Each structure stands twice: as structure tokens, then as C-alpha cells.
């Protein structure tokens, strides 16, 4: 099995494509089960955020795995596979490991250095664990991915460039308003993870008064209590829109929350930050007098938040070292079944020779047979010890996968190919 990551992000697709690809929380388990039911896919983890949808998979073949995953994403999104292919990026083998570590470190984020992706990766991993779609290879990858992300943020200043997509969106809002946000009234629509992040960021920016609404009023009330904001009933949304300067929309709704009908009678200038995928603001809102909509496409076009070169270089160095370590683990894992097969072969030879000896010398007592058997086992173990230790060391080095193949050929070992979700991985190339 080998690693394959396939996805679309703000770099390769606009919001219209991303919102069709987006996978809501309740949809994740069923999609994971569909993925691992494909012929070439043994394991799968799905990451779906406001600006990326990715599948990390353990596959038994590159082209087969690529086709299987593309077909599932095509069926889910309703985008024909040949059209979808133009929006996807693909990483295989070592490149897939590097990509996952760069994502967790914030290097691949729209706002370079943002830490929110770590929580999103953690949620994706937990979802895969719950439906048992992550086997040995993805368990190791995701655990190391989360660790590398934490290390990058702890050891460098990568997150100084921008804390989140919300931060970047508020920077654009400040430009449109012409002044800082202090004292500006705001409304946050949605009380989930992105809504909570929006409330926290707005509070730090000095925005106020701040109101929160959500279809579940209890969630809005709990969030409002934490930040000294005011929870308002969702039914009062249109009225509150006429009373605020800034709106941040971050719901999990599959349909637009801010429709043209709700916004056309606002009666004053209003900046709307649409941070949801699918979009919370209806497309026909564009062009309404006084309404400025900042969405994921706007943020991608701005590309305004970048860390200094030294911070980026420091994280890239961490990622490069961690990729090497992970690949060494992969190579060591690949040699393990071959070494085990060699030891099993040796044990079989000892057992066969003992049976021959007993048939020729039936007068041997049980004690004598035991002495001979233990002596033979010790001789075999001593002969195998140094070669097997050394081959594990060599296998951990670049190109070390050749040693497993040599052992199998020299000793005519029958090592089953890795075809199941829990099988030992093999090293592959990049695509």
C-alpha cells in the first residue's frame, strides 16, 4: 500500500467548485465507507474546510486509486470526472507525506501560518477512526502530521503572519470601511467552530456591540455568554441586519442564509464576510447598492498575508526533516514482514531437521531431543541476528526498499503483497 492525497483548494478551484465538493459533517462517515469500498483504496481520511477538500488514502496502485477516488468525489459533487480533474492536485508517496506536513504547518493555507487547520485535521482523523477507515498507514501519517504541525507552530514564528481566515477577511473589511473596526457594530451568523473563531477575533479587534445568531438559539446564547456578546433570535435576522456595520456568516447550511430579499432593504452600507463553504450569501446579492461581500474567492485573490522568508524557511526545514523520518519508518515497516518470513523459514528448517533426526534416532530421550532442538535454535538465531539487525538499518536509508526484495529473492521467501487496510506499506514514488 502507498500514500495518495487528492484534493482541491483555493489554489486550484473557485468557491463554486469548492462548495459542490464540500462534505458536511454528517456526510463524512458515508463518504469514507464509499471510499474504502473501492477496489484500490484500503484506507481513507477526508478533510473538508472552507477552502480545501482533500482525501488522504492508502492505495494498492496509483492509477487505480486515483480513478477510484476521483469517481467517488465526482459522484458526491455532481461534477463530471473529466471536469473535476482540472481542479484537483495529486500527491503520491513521498510527495503525499510532504503535502500533509505542509498543510498541518500552515504553509499551504490561504493565510499562511494559521493554526485552525490543525483542529480540522484532528477532526478528520477522529471521523476516520470512528468508522475504521484509517488503518496502520494513515494512523501513523495523521498522528505524525498533527505532531509536525504543533512543532512548526511551537518552534517558529510562522503563525505571526495571520491567525486565521477571519483575520484576513477583517483586514479587507477594514479597507472597505476606511477605518479600523473598533466601535463598529457586528453580527456573527453561526455558532459553530468558524463562528466561535469569528467572535473571538472580532472581540480582540475591539468590535462592538457584537451580536450572535444561530438557528439553535441555545448555542448562540452559550457563545455570547463567553464573550460578553448578545444572542439574538434567528427570526430577527432581517431586523438586526439593518442595525450593524459588519456581518460574518459562517454556518454549515447547504442553502444561502443571506438572500437578496434579506439584504436588499438594509438601507445602509454593510460589509458581509462570507466564510462558509457552501456560501452563505446568495450569488444574486452581488450588485446590491451599499452591500460589499468578501468571500473565499476575494481572500484568495488578495493573497495579502505572508510570513517573512526566515519563518517560512524554518518551517520548511522542519517539514523536510520530518518527511525523512517518516520515510525511514515506512522503509523499516516494509522490511519487517520480510525479516519475519526469513525467521519463520529458519524455524521451519529447524523443525524439519528435528523430525528427521527423531525418526533416525528414536532412542533419544525427551531431554536429549530438547537439548538438540534448543542448540539448533540458538545457532540459527545467532546466525540471523547480525544480518537482520543490519538489514533493518539499511532499509531505513534512502533506497533501502531494495534490501527487502533481495532477501525475498535470495531465500525464496513468500511474503504476501500488501492489499488490506492494515497491511505493511510499500515505498513508492511521486506524481
UniProtKB/TrEMBL annotation:
GO molecular function terms listed in the Swiss-Prot or TrEMBL record: glutamyl-tRNA reductase activity; NADP binding
Alphabetic keyword roster: NADP, Oxidoreductase, Porphyrin biosynthesis
Active site per UniProt: 50
Pathway: Porphyrin-containing compound metabolism; protoporphyrin-IX biosynthesis; 5-aminolevulinate from L-glutamyl-tRNA(Glu): step 1/2
Residues binding substrate, per UniProt: 49-52, 109, 114-116, 120
Domain of life of the source: Bacteria
Chemical reaction(s) catalysed: (S)-4-amino-5-oxopentanoate + tRNA(Glu) + NADP(+) = L-glutamyl-tRNA(Glu) + NADPH + H(+)
Binding site for NADP(+): 190-195
Name under which the protein is recorded: Glutamyl-tRNA reductase
Organism field: Actinoplanes utahensis
Chain's gene name: hemA
Amino acid at each position: 500500500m502507498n500514500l495518495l492525497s487528492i484534493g482541491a483548494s483555493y489554489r486550484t478551484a473557485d468557491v463554486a467548485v469548492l462548495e459542490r465538493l464540500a462534505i458536511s459533517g454528517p456526510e463524512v462517515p458515508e463518504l469514507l465507507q464509499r471510499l474504502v469500498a473501492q477496489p484500490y483504496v484500503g484506507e481513507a481520511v477526508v478533510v473538508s474546510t472552507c477552502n480545501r477538500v482533500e482525501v488522504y488514502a492508502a492505495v494498492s496502485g496509483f492509477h487505480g486509486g486515483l480513478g477510484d477516488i476521483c469517481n467517488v468525489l465526482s459522484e458526491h459533487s455532481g461534477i463530471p470526472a473529466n471536469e473535476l480533474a482540472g481542479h484537483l492536485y495529486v500527491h503520491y508517496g513521498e510527495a503525499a507525506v510532504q503535502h500533509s506536513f505542509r498543510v498541518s504547518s500552515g504553509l499551504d493555507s490561504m493565510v499562511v501560518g494559521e493554526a485552525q487547520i490543525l483542529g480540522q485535521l484532528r477532526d478528520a482523523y477522529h471521523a476516520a477512526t470512528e468508522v475504521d477507515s484509517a488503518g496502520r498507514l494513515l494512523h501513523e501519517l495523521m498522528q505524525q502530521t498533527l505532531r509536525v504541525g504543533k512543532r512548526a507552530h511551537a518552534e517558529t514564528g510562522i503563525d505571526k503572519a495571520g491567525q486565521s481566515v477571519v483575520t484576513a477577511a477583517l483586514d479587507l473589511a477594514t479597507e472597505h470601511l476606511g477605518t479600523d473596526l473598533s466601535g463598529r457594530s457586528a453580527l456573527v451568523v453561526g455558532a459553530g467552530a468558524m463562528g466561535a473563531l469569528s467572535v473571538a477575533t472580532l472581540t480582540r479587534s475591539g468590535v462592538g456591540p457584537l451580536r450572535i445568531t444561530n438557528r439553535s438559539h441555545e448555542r448562540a446564547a452559550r457563545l455570547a455568554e463567553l464573550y460578553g456578546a448578545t444572542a439574538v433570535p434567528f427570526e430577527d435576522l432581517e431586523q438586526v441586519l439593518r442595525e450593524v456595520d459588519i456581518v460574518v456568516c459562517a454556518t454549515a447550511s447547504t442553502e444561502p442564509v443571506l438572500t437578496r430579499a434579506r439584504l436588499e432593504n438594509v438601507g445602509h452600507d454593510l460589509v458581509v464576510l462570507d466564510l462558509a463553504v457552501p456560501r452563505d450569501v446568495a450569488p444574486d446579492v452581488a450588485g446590491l447598492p451599499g452591500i460589499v461581500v468578501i468571500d473565499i474567492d476575494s481572500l484568495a485573490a488578495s493573497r495579502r498575508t505572508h510570513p517573512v522568508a526566515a519563518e517560512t524557511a524554518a518551517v520548511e526545514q522542519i517539514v523536510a526533516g520530518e518527511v525523512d523520518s517518516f520515510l525511514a519508518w515506512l522503509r523499516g515497516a516494509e522490511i519487517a514482514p520480510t525479516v519475519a518470513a526469513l525467521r519463520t523459514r529458519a524455524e521451519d528448517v529447524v523443525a524439519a531437521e528435528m523430525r528427521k533426526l527423531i525418526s533416525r534416532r528414536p532412542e533419544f530421550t525427551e531431554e536429549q531431543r530438547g537439548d538438540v532442538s534448543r542448540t539448533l535454535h540458538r545457532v540459527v538465531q545467532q546466525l540471523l541476528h547480525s544480518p537482520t539487525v543490519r538489514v533493518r538499518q539499511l532499509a531505513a536509508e534512502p533506497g533501502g526498499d531494495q534490501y527487502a526484495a533481495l532477501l525475498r529473492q535470495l531465500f525464496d521467501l513468500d511474503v504476501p503483497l500488501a492489499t488490506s487496510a492494515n497491511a505493511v506499506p510499500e515505498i513508492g514514488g511521486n506524481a
